[in-house]
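From the methods appendix. Each design record in this collection lists the tokenized structure first, followed by the designed amino acid sequence. Records were kept in a plain field format so they could be parsed without special tools. The example shown here is representative of the layout used throughout.

RECORD:
FOLD TOKENS (454 positions):
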């Protein structure tokens, strides 16, 4: 039995025709048969005729395509094709998801919508309405973006919204610009390129913030610390960014810091003993005694939290990372010309400010105090200072000594007392008394050894 020869595939009399199938356009087409593509047909030609003319036409088309695609790489062409396909697919998907629903309620920055055919309500961000939230009962068009499992709500996006939230555009560690939309008990509600986020109150600043209302409608540079696209949840922190920048500036500041420098800082907190000032990487202590030349009882009367002040670097402890600051040094000291104001031996007036066991301090002018030692309070011996003077009492004192270098003035109260004139009784007793006549006692016995009458 001889082997049967296969007929030529291009032979019109022997090549089998592929079965006809319906295409997407509803026209019949021939499927490939045996891995061979059916020949193209030209209008007006026989079914399998005009092969030479078809080859010429194919060559012309290929030449025109090659000319038109000059300058485009294969990667760009493939990317364009894929992008077009994805865009058309996404558009079709959005059209399928787009629906209309009635607004049920508005709470804070959320608009709750009744989703037709759904078992749960949907929520829209009020930021998607440029002219303000719609009235309750009105109808809005939207499409569904996802589902919030925790709250049982559909996540909706307004049809035709000016901004579209792309969760893939944010990631942990990114630096973003967050616009504060509103405040609540826990912190700030923010908007980052159409994506709703939250900033806890502890993450607003390096120090505790009492008034969060001041940040509304402000844009704050922040760091993304948590992103959950499936739950439509994002948390940002301004404090994390400030701490990062502060750490970068810390070493630079300690290298440049020197005693005697005038620095600008921000008052961060106030205590009974002074105030802490942020120098831009390190905190310095502005002691209450260095705030003013006058005695300061309450530091809050001199500086306020958040205030920008210029201070002088007084002392640096690099091992313990402590800085001592001064404010009064930037104004003229009343001790500069103290010697010409209060001459030794002059009598001046002052106010008693403090009582101590060893004496009393007297304020001669704001920022200048002198000391009356207990031995200079009165001519007689004084056991208790309070027996002679009291706080806030106006007194007249005499200047005994002035030391402008040590900023000390010695005063005397008893030396300023007027000299009292002697009284008449004292004058009479002080006059010299005449000598009294000497009266001899009369003898009652006779003298012996003398010659007497018989």
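DESIGN:
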């Amino acid at each position: 039995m001889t082997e049967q020869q296969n007929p030529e595939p291009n032979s019109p009399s022997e090549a089998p025709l592929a079965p006809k199938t319906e295409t997407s356009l509803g026209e019949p087409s021939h499927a490939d048969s045996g891995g061979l593509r059916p020949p193209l047909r030209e209008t007006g030609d026989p079914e399998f005729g005009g092969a030479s003319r078809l080859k010429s036409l194919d060559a012309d088309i290929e030449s025109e395509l090659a000319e038109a695609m000059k300058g485009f790489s294969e990667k760009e062409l493939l990317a364009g094709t894929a992008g077009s396909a994805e865009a058309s697919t996404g558009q079709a998907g959005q059209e399928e998801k787009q629906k209309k629903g009635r607004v049920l309620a508005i709470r804070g920055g959320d608009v709750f919508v009744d989703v037709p055919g759904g078992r749960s309500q949907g929520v829209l961000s009020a930021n998607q309405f440029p002219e303000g939230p719609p009235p309750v009962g009105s109808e809005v068009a939207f499409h569904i973006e996802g589902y919030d499992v925790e709250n049982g709500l559909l996540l909706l996006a307004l049809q035709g919204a000016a901004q579209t939230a792309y969760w893939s555009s944010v990631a942990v560690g990114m630096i973003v610009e967050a616009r504060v939309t509103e405040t609540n008990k826990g912190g700030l509600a923010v908007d980052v390129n159409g994506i709703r986020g939250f900033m806890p109150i502890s993450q607003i600043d390096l120090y505790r913030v009492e008034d969060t209302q001041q940040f509304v409608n402000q844009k704050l540079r922040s760091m993304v610390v948590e992103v959950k696209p499936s739950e439509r949840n994002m948390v940002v922190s301004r404090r994390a960014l400030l701490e990062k920048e502060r750490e970068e500036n810390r070493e630079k500041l300690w290298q440049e810091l020197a005693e005697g420098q005038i620095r600008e800082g921000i008052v961060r907190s106030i205590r009974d003993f002074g105030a802490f000032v942020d120098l831009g990487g390190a905190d310095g202590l502005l002691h209450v005694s260095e705030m003013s030349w006058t005695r300061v009882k309450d530091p809050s009367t001199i500086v306020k939290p958040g205030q920008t002040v210029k201070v002088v670097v007084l002392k640096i402890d690099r091992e313990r990372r402590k800085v001592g600051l001064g404010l009064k040094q930037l104004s003229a000291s009343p001790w500069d010309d103290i010697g010409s104001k209060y001459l030794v031996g002059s009598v001046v007036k002052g106010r008693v400010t403090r009582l101590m066991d060893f004496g009393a301090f007297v304020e001669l002018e704001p920022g200048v105090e002198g000391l009356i030692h207990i031995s200079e309070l009165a001519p007689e011996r004084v056991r208790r200072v309070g027996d002679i003077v009291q706080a806030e009492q106006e007194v007249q004192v005499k200047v005994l000594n002035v030391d402008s270098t040590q900023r000390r003035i010695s005063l005397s109260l008893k030396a300023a007392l007027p000299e009292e004139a002697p009284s008449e009784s004292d004058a009479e007793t002080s006059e010299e008394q005449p000598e009294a006549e000497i009266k001899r006692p009369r003898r009652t016995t006779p003298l012996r050894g003398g010659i007497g009458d018989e």
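APPENDIX NOTE: Confidence is low (pLDDT under 50) at residues 1-51, 75-96.
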